[in-house]
Amino acid sequence: MGHLKLQAVTKTFGNVEVIRATDLTIEEGEFVVFVGPSGCGKSTMLRMIAGLEEISSGTIAIDGRVVNDIAPVERGIAMVFQSYALYPHMTVFENIAFPLRVAKLAKGEVDQRVRRAAELLKLSDRLEYKPGELSGGQRQRVAIGRAIVREPSVFLFDEPLSNLDAALRSEMRVELSRLHASLGNTMIYVTHDQIEAMTMATKIVVLRAGRVEQVGSPLELFHKPANRFVAGFIGNPTMNFIAAEGISSSAEGATVRLSTGLELKLPVNGSIESGEALELGIRPDDLVLGGADAQIEMTPEVVERLGNQSVVHGITKTDQPLCAVIGGDRPISPGRPTRLGFDVAKAHLFRNDGTALERRVDLQSLVAD
Ligand SMILES: Nc1ncnc2c1ncn2[C@@H]1O[C@H](COP(=O)(O)OP(=O)(O)O)[C@@H](O)[C@H]1O
Ligand SMILES: [Mg+2]
After folding, report:
1. Neighbours of 241 (CB within 10 A)
2. Which atom of ligand 1 is nearest to the CA of 34?
3. Which residue range or ranges hold the ABC transporter domain (predicted)?
């Protein structure tokens, strides 16, 4: 239970196509995160799966049954919103029990399901409280409890943690991952926050302007982004991009010249033209002070000292912005030029149209335990 298949699904508001033809398969038990900037169509996608929004064309099937014309309550899904949508005059117990009352379940069954959900969500000692007497995190858990008791085959979450402060958000991320591990249901979670996507998802769907940019595991997206958009969106601080020009390509990879003058051979697949406009991508964490084989000169402008590491924002000699994350105990100060190195195997290369040349990275070896 909990298998989803979207085929050529589109959504048009007026004459604006906000979801382009989308094909997507979600396997039973997956934790899928739709991530992308505000307005890219995440909520619309989720609402179409829920049946709260009609689809303009295509089909959505849940567990092999096309649900295009099936009412939300009959789709076997439960949705949790950012605004918890709790009834303020009802107790926690009654809020969680609400969908079961509507479905006219027997009293004993209601009692049992609510108590089981409350236990899972650490709300057992709050059942007689009213929502107004709870913290934001507890209220969000009540909203999740109300979804759990319906025993859906698929959970849908729309930015459920956005109203919480940073500390509570990271706590709730862990709780949601635990919940997923213990329930085993399919979960689809929408967020604009790439950290939520990276930390909770088994599969991430990156959306941009109504189009799926890439689907993959968190590490696939991080190490093998299909294009510049995904590369820049996943990972924090965001990847550095440096203009480059193609020189030649061979079996060993592509040779390019950075705008800083540095010539490098990168281990990527695919051939490039001499003079081709390219961009090199390097993550701030992959830059090191001195050391490694490639050298870029940078003048630091702002140094953010986080203790365990320092985030350095500066510019290259050719005025390109550059960010580096270095050890918190390394010497660095604004205004004093410094040389940064990186391992060419860590670099990404993008064509003018944004597509990535495939890196020769063995993902298996990165995730082996
Ligand atoms: N009911 C609506 N009528 C017209 N346009 C809408 C409606 N709902 C959403 N949109 C538009 O569709 C696009 C996607 O919206 P949405 O799915 O809410 O984005 P996200 O959740 O990724 O921030 C936006 O441009 C938004 O303005
Ligand atoms: Mg939204």
Report:
1. 18
2. 22
3. 4-234
Would the CB of 15 count as within 6 Å of ligand 1? no
pLDDT at 113: 95
Question: Any idea what the CATH number is for the domain that residue 74 is in?
Answer: 3.40.50.300
Residues 200 and 265 in one domain: no
Residues 249 and 189 in one domain: no
Give the total number of structural domains in the chain.
2
Any atom of ligand 1 within 6 Å of the Cβ of 38: yes
CA gap 136, 120 in Å, rounded: 18
User: Is 209 a pocket residue for ligand 1 (Cβ < 6 Å)?
Assistant: no
Residues 6 or more apart whose CB falls under 8 angstroms from that of 135 comprise: 168
Token pair belonging to 31: 């934790």
Are 211 and 239 found together in one domain?
Answer: no
Q: What average pLDDT does the structure give for the chain?
A: 94
Tell me the mean pLDDT in the region 26-44: 97
What percentage of the chain exceeds 70 in pLDDT? 98
Reported as a single tens digit per residue, the pLDDT across 50-84 is 999 999 999 999 999 999 999 998 999 999 988 88
Two tokens at 329? Answer: 């105990």
The last residue of one of the domains, among 192, 212, 231, is: 231
Q: Domain ends where: 182, 197, 231?
A: 231
H or E element, residue 11: strand 4-13
Question: pLDDT confidence of 363, banded at 50, 70, 90?
Answer: confident
Sheet holding 186-191, edge to edge: 77-80, 154-158, 186-191, 31-35, 203-208, 211-216
292: confidence class by pLDDT, cuts 50, 70, 90? low
Taking the alpha carbons at both ends of the chain, their separation in whole angstroms is 30
Query: Whole domain around residue 244: which residue ranges?
Result: 232-367
Question: CA 313, CA 308: separation in Å to the nearest integer?
Answer: 17
What integer pLDDT is reported at residue 366 of this predicted model? Answer: 72
**Residue 312 CB less than 6 A away from ligand 1:** no
Residues 212 and 242 in one domain: no
Residues 220 and 363 grouped into a single domain: no
Ligand (nearest to CA of 53): 1
